[in-house]
Design goal:
alpha/beta; 2-enoyl-CoA Hydratase, Chain A, domain 1; 2 domains; six-stranded mixed β-sheet; three-stranded parallel β-sheet; 9 strands; 14% strand
Length: 265
Amino acid sequence: MSRVHLQRGTHAATLVIDNPHRGNALTPAMMREASDLLSQLAGELRATGGPFGGVVIRGAGDRAFCAGYDLATLEAETRTRPGLVIPELLDLVEVIQQFPVPTIAALHGHAIGGGALLASLCDLRYARGGVRFRIPTTRIGIVYPLDGLRRLAALLGLGRATEVLLLAEDVSTENGLLWGLYQEVSVSPDALSARIAEVTASLAARAPLAVSGTLAVLRSLGRGVDESQVQAWHAEWLARCVTSDDIVEGLQAARERRTPSFRGV
């Protein structure tokens, strides 16, 4: 039975990590399936290019967003593939970082280790009260993936990221909000779902080329890409936007005081 599902809606898609009896912990097979589902969706979105509000990542059940990499599997992996630690997770990380529309984490319960990595790599993170965000790598004896280190430092600043990573303690919901880990914290499951629905509907109403270009440049800044390459990508996306039909529509809609209808061209 599949433990990863992709649900498609009007404004967005939702990737559900469905392993609730183990805190939605990830196995290699689940990560491969998630990568395949997201890669297929990304290809379709790149081909159509139209408005789309993003992909939401959430965990099944009430207990956890994702408790990280399945520890029993991790132990076996370090014995059988010591030179390729968690390659499936790294593949999934790459798919998320290259996704053509916004990625949004809907967080509740535990977000630990690899689950914290998935959440932090998303472009936006909305949480429910009581989330436990923890990266226990120093308790286990392994160094966190490089992309995760970069992303956490970009989100929290080097000092806070160092504290979170070295102490390997829970980040409270209050501190997560204060430090910029979460965009917002909702008081109930319904409130969280409603807020994410609002966000994806708003994103679907924005100009697709402008959204994709902004994401591409912001993500490259967060990954520490060479400044000359960042400038080149920014110039490329800016040129695509200013020569698009969408900018004509956006300016005309502003003059006419109406909602624009973008097509991504």
